[in-house]
Design brief:
The protein has about 210 residues and is an all-alpha fold. It contains eleven helices and no strands.
Length: about 210
C-alpha cells in the first residue's frame, strides 16, 4: 500500500485548516462581528457598515434568538454578499454549543436557500465530526458543486471552496485513501495561495 511520506506530514494539519478558515467548530467561544464575517469579507472592509450583525450577536448572547435571527435577515437583505441569515445564526449557535439548534437552522437554510453552498458544507462538517463519512463526503461535494455557480461574493466563494476541499481531503484521509486526499489538499493550497496574493494586492493598493 502506498503511503507518500510527504502526505503523512501534511494530512494531520487538516483539522486545523478547517478551523482556521472559518468552518464552524462546536465550542464555547466569545464571538465577534470580525469572527463571524472574517471568511466573508475582504480584510480592509469597514465592519461598521454591518451594525445589524453586531447587534444580532448581542441579542443572541442575551437569549433573544428570534430577535437575533431577524437582525441577521435584515443584514442579509441589505448586504447580499453576506451568508444567508440562517447560516450566520448557525455559526452563533455552534460558537455557544447549541449544536442541535444550529443543525436545525442549517436544515432550514437548505430549504430556504437551496443554491447557497455554505449550509451543505457546514452540515458535512457536523456529519464528519460524528463519524458519518459517507454523508459528509456527499454534502461537501454538494457544497463544492454549488460554489461553481455562486457569484455574489468572491471572498466568500473562495473560503467555501477551501473548506469543501479541506473537508473532502479529511474524509479521504480517514479512509487512508492518500492519493484522493492529496488531490483535494493541493486544490486547497492553490486556493489559499491565490487568497494570500489577493490580500497582498489589496494591501499595496491601500498603501
Amino acid at each position: 500500500m502506498r503511503h507518500p511520506v510527504r502526505f503523512r506530514v501534511i494530512v494531520p494539519v487538516l483539522t486545523a485548516i478547517v478551523l482556521v478558515h472559518g468552518l464552524s467548530a462546536p465550542a464555547t467561544a466569545q464571538i465577534s462581528p470580525e469572527a463571524l464575517l472574517g471568511g466573508v469579507l475582504a480584510p480592509d472592509t469597514n465592519l461598521s457598515e454591518y451594525k445589524d450583525v453586531a447587534d444580532a450577536i448581542v441579542l443572541f448572547r442575551r437569549g433573544n434568538a428570534s430577535g437575533s435571527l431577524a437582525l441577521l435577515a435584515k443584514a442579509r437583505n441589505e448586504h447580499p454578499e453576506l451568508a444567508p441569515s440562517e447560516v450566520m445564526f448557525a455559526h452563533l449557535c455552534f460558537a455557544f454549543d447549541s449544536i442541535d439548534e444550529g443543525r436545525a437552522v442549517l436544515e432550514s437554510s437548505v430549504v430556504n436557500q437551496p443554491e447557497d453552498p455554505e449550509a451543505y458544507i457546514m452540515i458535512a462538517d457536523l456529519a464528519m465530526r460524528q463519524g458519518r463519512m459517507a454523508e459528509s463526503e456527499a454534502m461537501f461535494r454538494k457544497g463544492l458543486d454549488l460554489t461553481d455557480i455562486y457569484d455574489a461574493n468572491e471572498v466568500r466563494k473562495r473560503s467555501m471552496r477551501i473548506n469543501a476541499h479541506a473537508g473532502i481531503a479529511r474524509v479521504f484521509e480517514s479512509r487512508r485513501q492518500w492519493d484522493q486526499a492529496e488531490g483535494h489538499l493541493r486544490d486547497w493550497i492553490d486556493l489559499d495561495r491565490k487568497k494570500e496574493c489577493g490580500m497582498e494586492t489589496t494591501r499595496r493598493s491601500v498603501l
